[in-house]
Backbone:
């Protein structure tokens, strides 16, 4: 009986040891899988032809061992909400004035860490070929957000259609209009929807990328473009403060900025309607 009990204790010790090994292996496997999931770099962007160049950069990053997931949003609000909620690690769709306004309105704590492309905006029409053809009371669509709307008003001023208060900048609103000789009716729409308004208004502020995406007009056909020399309007790579030095993000940005294939994709998408800001 004593020998039997000793044998059972020996078996029990061996079983316990085996179980410990199994549990430890499972824990290590779980930790490894969790780390692998956390290692995926999630990049958020808004729907636009910019995504073609981003996809090229993603492909090159994966070839270099960086696991990347590109997430496309259909509006200009969700990418910042997703970044704040840690659903993504970085977003790429907004310039500094838009970012500063989003931080003010949404209470976000974000940092712009690197510039991307600068996109032209223009004034487009399917009704007239020249500004002097606009009739009294013509309808003009501009962006409804505080930053891009101001940029549209500045462009209308450059076209000689309105006059703003002295010193007005990209933060201008319709309240800053001091002269409107043609009594233009200003219609404010979400920036991403302006391209689809061309059949309904006489003139519209437009973004060549969205014009191309919507297929509503030739992106090069604007009656007037603003320049690409103002780096204030360069699209930024935006992160939370704790990700400023994330090596994955820095590596991806370097790939995007240095890749000839990415530049080729940008050239194909935008031609002369963009410039790089880095």
Residues:
């Amino acid at each position: 009986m004593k020998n039997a009990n000793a044998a059972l204790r020996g078996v029990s010790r061996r079983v316990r040891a085996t179980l410990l090994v199994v549990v430890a292996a499972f824990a290590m496997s779980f930790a490894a899988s969790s780390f692998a999931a956390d290692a995926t770099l999630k990049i958020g962007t808004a729907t636009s032809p910019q995504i073609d160049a981003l996809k090229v950069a993603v492909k090159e990053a994966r070839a270099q061992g960086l696991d990347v997931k590109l997430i496309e949003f259909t509006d200009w609000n969700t990418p910042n909400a997703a970044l704040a909620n840690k659903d993504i690690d970085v977003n790429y769709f907004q310039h500094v004035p838009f970012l500063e306004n989003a931080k003010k309105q949404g209470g976000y704590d974000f940092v712009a860490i690197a510039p991307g492309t600068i996109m032209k905006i223009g004034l487009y029409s399917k009704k007239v070929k020249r500004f002097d053809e606009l009739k009294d009371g013509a309808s003009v669509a501009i962006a409804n957000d505080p930053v891009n709307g101001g940029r549209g008003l500045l462009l209308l001023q450059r076209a000689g259609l309105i006059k703003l208060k002295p010193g007005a900048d990209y933060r201008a609103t319709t309240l800053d209009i001091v002269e409107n000789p043609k009594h233009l009716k200003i219609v404010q729409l979400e920036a991403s929807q302006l391209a689809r308004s061309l059949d309904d208004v006489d003139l519209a502020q437009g973004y060549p990328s969205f014009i191309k995406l919507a297929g509503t007009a030739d992106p090069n056909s604007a009656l007037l473009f603003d320049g690409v020399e103002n780096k204030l309007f360069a699209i930024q790579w935006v992160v939370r403060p704790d990700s400023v030095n994330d090596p994955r993000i820095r590596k991806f940005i370097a790939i995007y900025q240095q890749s000839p294939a990415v530049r080729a994709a940008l050239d194909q998408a935008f031609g002369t309607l963009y410039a790089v800001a880095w």
Summary: The chain has three domains: 1-34, 39-116+241-273, 122-225. The radius of gyration is 27 Å. Residues 2-12, 14-37 have pLDDT under 50 and may be disordered.
